[in-house]
């Protein structure tokens, strides 16, 4: 039985690496960027849930390329501003779009 040449292994490694690097979502994002956004979303939701002034509110959080969007309703301006501050405190957040409505 003949052993594969080192050139053959090199070609296989290059092909696999190029396939992994070339993977992108329809929005042109890499899998790593999607995971980072999911991680940011989870961290923001957890902080909002633990916050004593915001934990009872249904605040939706979405993240795209590090930009967090908050939607839902709160009772007053203080809570709206606090939600922005909480979201900004999460590592990786580039910008916060606060679309929360005041009831």
Mean pLDDT: 83
Based on Cα principal axes, name the global outline: rod-shaped
Structural class: alpha/beta
* Quaternary status: single chain
Percentage of β-strand residues: 15-25%
**Termini separation:** 76 Å
CATH fold-level label:
Histidine-containing Protein, Chain: A
Estimated helix fraction: 40-55%
What Rg do the Cα atoms give?
Answer: 21 Å
Number of helices: 3
Describe this structure in words.
Strands 1, 2, 3 and 4 form a 4-stranded mixed beta sheet that branches. This protein has one domain: Histidine-containing Protein, Chain: A. It is α/β, with parallel strands linked by helices and 103 residues long. It is 47% helix and 19% strand. The mean pLDDT is 83. The chain is built from 3 helices and 4 strands.
Features:
single chain; 103 residues; alpha/beta; 3 helices; 4 strands; rod-shaped
Secondary structure: elements and pairs:
Layout: H1 6-21, H2 31-50, E1 59-64, E2 67-74, H3 77-88, E3 95-98, E4 101-102
Parallel strand pairs: 2-3, 2-4
Antiparallel strand pairs: 1-2
Quick structural summary:
The protein has 103 residues and is of the alpha/beta class. The protein has helices spanning 6-21, 31-50, 77-88; strands at 59-64, 67-74, 95-98, 101-102. Strands 1, 2, 3 and 4 form a four-stranded mixed sheet that branches.
């Amino acid at each position: 039985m003949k052993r594969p040449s080192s050139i053959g292994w090199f070609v296989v490694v290059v092909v696999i690496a190029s396939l992994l690097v070339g993977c992108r979502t329809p929005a042109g994002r890499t899998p790593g960027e999607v995971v980072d956004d999911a991680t940011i979303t989870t961290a923001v939701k957890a902080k909002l849930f633990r916050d004593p002034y915001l934990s009872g509110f249904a605040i939706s959080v979405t993240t795209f390329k590090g930009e967090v969007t908050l939607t839902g309703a709160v009772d007053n301006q203080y809570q709206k501003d606090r939600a922005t501050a909480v979201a900004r405190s999460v590592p990786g957040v580039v910008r916060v779009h606060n679309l929360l409505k005041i009831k």
